[in-house]
Design brief:
Rna Polymerase Sigma Factor, Chain: A; 105 residues; 4 helices; flat; single chain; mainly alpha
Length: 105
Amino acid sequence: MNDHTLDSFLRLRPRLRGIAYRMLGSAADADEVVQDAWLRWHGTEHASVDNAEAWLVSVTTRLAIDRLRAAQSRREQYVGTWLPEPILTEAEAPHTPEQMLERAD
C-alpha cells in the first residue's frame, strides 16, 4: 500500500462515515463499517481499481446494507420505536471532566 491509497482513504473517511451513519443511525456501527471498508481497501489490488472514491463508497454502502439486514432480524423482537443515535458535533463534545460528567448524567 502506498501513500496515495492511504491518502485517498483518509480524505474520503468523513464521507464514508456519513454514509454509514445515515444508513445505520449509530455512530458505533458506522465506525465499524468504515473500519471494515478500510480492511477491504487495504487488501485489494489497487491497480485494478479505476476510481477509488466509487469503490470505497460502494463497499461502505454494501457493508452497511449487510449490517442493516443482520440488525433487522435482531430488531424484529423489539416493540418500541427505533430512533437513530444522536451524533455529537465538535462544538457539543465535552472538553472538561466537569462537562463530561454533566453529559453522562
